[in-house]
UniProtKB/TrEMBL annotation:
Record-stated family: Belongs to the 4-hydroxybenzoyl-CoA thioesterase family.
Name recorded for this polypeptide: 4-hydroxybenzoyl-CoA thioesterase
Tagged with keyword GTP-binding: no
Cited NCBIfam families: YbgC/FadM family acyl-CoA thioesterase (TIGR00051)
Pfam families to which the protein is assigned, alphabetical: 4HBT_2
Recorded superkingdom: Bacteria
UniProtKB keywords: Hydrolase
A GO molecular function held by the record: fatty acyl-CoA hydrolase activity
PANTHER family in the record: 4-HYDROXYBENZOYL-COA THIOESTERASE FAMILY MEMBER, NOVEL THIOESTERASE SUPERFAMILY DOMAIN AND SAPOSIN A-TYPE DOMAIN CONTAINING PROTEIN (0610012H03RIK)
Amino acid sequence: MKNEFQVRVNFGDTDAAGIVYYPNYFKWFDIAGHQFFRSIGLAPAKLTEEQNIILPLLDVRCTFEHPLHYDDVITIRTSVAEVNNRTIKLTHEVYKEETKTGFGYELRGWVKKENDQIAAVPIPARVRELLQQEGFGENKQINPWLNA
């Protein structure tokens, strides 16, 4: 499965040189991961509320290729790279028009929270099958920041 959405770079996302400050890529990866799960009907808040499942971040990496600046509109493309027994690896690519400005991944656990304890649990077969399907999720969201 995959998803993509757009966001406009805000002034507060830049450093003194007017270039996007690198931690913002990790913020965008996190947002993209949550948007991805929502797009396939697995909203993290709903998973927690209905099944006590949380999706903690276990590992993350980013490679930066080209700078971004205030008011740039970027597209973040997310796809499933791996589904293991208890983890999901998502890849993210950030584009300004057709130029890839950075890329990386997130490794998230499938974790059950019960009685103030957390433990990794196997990803259900139906979820594994959903994650491994081709195409985009059905619940793609439109980003209101672009119209501001």
